Amino acid sequence: MTPFTISLAALAGFLLIWFLIEKSRRRTHPVTGGLQENINLPHTDEFELYANAFSHCSRKTRLVMAEAGVPYRYHSIDLIETGKYETIGPRYLKVNPSGLVPTLVHNGHPIYESDDILTYVADHASPDAGSLVPTDPAERTEMNRWLESGVISSDDPMENMPARAGSCIPGLTFPVFVTAIRYIPLRRILVGFLFHPDKKRPAFFTASRLFGLRTMLSQKPLQQMMHASRDHMRGHLAQLAQKLESTQGPWILGEQYTLADVTWSCILLRVDETGWLDHFLQDADLAPVRTYYTALKNRDSWKAAITDKAHPIVEKAEADLKKAIATDSKIAKALYG
Ligand SMILES: N[C@@H](CCC(=O)N[C@@H](CS)C(=O)NCC(=O)O)C(=O)O
After folding, report:
1. Do 107 and 142 reside in the same domain of the chain?
2. Where is the GST N-terminal domain (predicted)?
């Protein structure tokens, strides 16, 4: 063996050991939702929230904290579309071994799943928070129905789009993902092939980074997925408009702002920032949705939870997408045609 082959073998051995150690530090597994009383995490504040600026589920939890008036320490956790795969870093996996955001930590005990966080905050966080849930059981059931519609499943984020508005979110967000990923170095995206539990994500982001919006939008399966999301979301918005008309607003259940409005704030925001809202609202039947969305944005919680936590990469991506739609008819046709 020459000194060169010996060095090569040593390097390969070193890389393999590094990979195996890193892999074992980044192992993920599913978690059950709700409060985990048996887990104790280091903390400095009574409430600590681990969340991402762009993540739909994270936004719901920031909004509920703002609505309940609960102070908390904020840990901003990146997803690859906002910079890096921080959710599968060893530090965050100690907080939530599923590798998903958000996680709320109360006195060191984590609470998993965004909807469990919403109800936990409404039930425990502050004396005012109880008002986010109706006392009347029938109203409570109705609130839960609207909450359920906004869920994004951890197992299959796009399951059952006809029943869930939340399942339409990934497909509608796809063009913004493609434009955002331009700002992320390729080497960071490729790390996902080594460590991310869902290899479809690095594959999608690598292709988006290499080929760009025009090419990605011309791929038939991606177009079909996006159009299915769009068409089902239109149906969900029509149901929302009918509901708002029947209750006379200003909120989904009428006079009382509830957890259902927290979820739907984030759905409408995503539909808006991905360039779809104006397209949908050309339909006059959806006018109540516009009034409702304006009222949501005027609440104090919106500034605290959404505006003040905006992410620069996402803002650039949204501006890029709007420009591309305005200047490239092929892109506009792929989206709206
Ligand atoms: N059902 C979960 C879904 C959480 C989820 O899917 N979070 C996404 C962001 S919205 C995530 O952390 N993805 C990790 C990744 O993209 O690598 C919840 O509601 O909390």
Report:
1. no
2. 45-129
Q: Is 167 found in the same domain as 252?
A: yes
Count structural domains, the chain: 2
Model pLDDT for residues 282-333, shown as the tens digit of each residue: 999 999 999 999 999 999 999 999 999 899 999 999 999 999 999 999 999 8
Q: How far is CA 106 from the centre of its chain?
A: 21
User: Mutate which of 49, 64, 101 to test ligand 1's pocket (most atoms within 8 Å of Cβ)?
Assistant: 101
278 lies in the same domain as 167 = yes
Per the CB < 8 A criterion, the answer to whether 33 and 89 are in contact is: no
Report d(CA 19, CA 109) in Å as an integer. 31
> Are 94 and 159 part of one and the same domain?
no
The CA 248 to ligand 1 mean position distance, Å, reads 33
At 324, which CATH number?
Answer: 1.20.1050.10
Does the residue 201 lie in any domain? no
How far is residue 176 CA from its own chain's centroid? 13
